[in-house]
Amino acid sequence: MKNGTDSFLCLGHWPSAGSFGLNTDILATNLINLIVVLGLLIFFGKGVLSDLLDNRKQRILNSIRNSEELREGAIEQLEKARSHLRKVEIEADRFRVDGYSEIERKKKNLIDSTYKALEELENSKNETLNFEQQKASTQVRQRVFQQALQKALGILKSHLNGEFHLRIIVVNIAILEAREEGKN
């Protein structure tokens, strides 16, 4: 390897080459090579690089447009959701008010029906009491009448003898004859 390096270095010292020669200064040659390569890359790669950058720019712009469309769609959906929420809240308030009204109406109906039932019970109680009083007074009258009848029968039986019996029959016959004569 030393021989190859030596021969390369020796090329720079050839007197017969005249003005043409190889620069063996690595730092200077690298800088020149880099400038040449960059120049070639810029000259030939400008179109490719421009296309790559344009494609990248288009993708970014498309992504931004898509994001804007998605954002607008999301805003529309948000507005629809808010509108729906307001409608649902209004409906819920109406149901709440209607529910309270329905509860109050049912409460009033229950109270009214309870009062009516109590009134009917009171009337039924009064009718039952009146009926029981009439029944009791009828029973008392019947007993009094039975006792009076039994007492009268007892008095009649004790006073009724053959002669008294005959007098009653005669009186009844006289009453019947008087009726017959009054009809003729």
Automatic annotation (TrEMBL):
Membrane topology: Single-pass membrane protein
Predominant place of localization: membrane
Superkingdom to which the source organism belongs: Eukaryota
Cited InterPro entries: ATP_synth_b/b'su_bac/chlpt
Localisation: Membrane; Plastid, Chloroplast thylakoid membrane
Tagged with keyword Cell division: no
GO cellular component term of the entry, any: proton-transporting ATP synthase complex
Residue spans crossing the bilayer: 26-49
Biological function: F(1)F(0) ATP synthase produces ATP from ADP in the presence of a proton or sodium gradient. F-type ATPases consist of two structural domains, F(1) containing the extramembraneous catalytic core and F(0) containing the membrane proton channel, linked together by a central stalk and a peripheral stalk. During catalysis, ATP synthesis in the catalytic domain of F(1) is coupled via a rotary mechanism of the central stalk subunits to proton translocation. Component of the F(0) channel, it forms part of the peripheral stalk, linking F(1) to F(0).
Sequence similarity: Belongs to the ATPase B chain family.
Note: In plastids the F-type ATPase is also known as CF(1)CF(0).
Name the UniProt record assigns to this protein: ATP synthase subunit b, chloroplastic
Organism (species): Goodenia reinwardtii
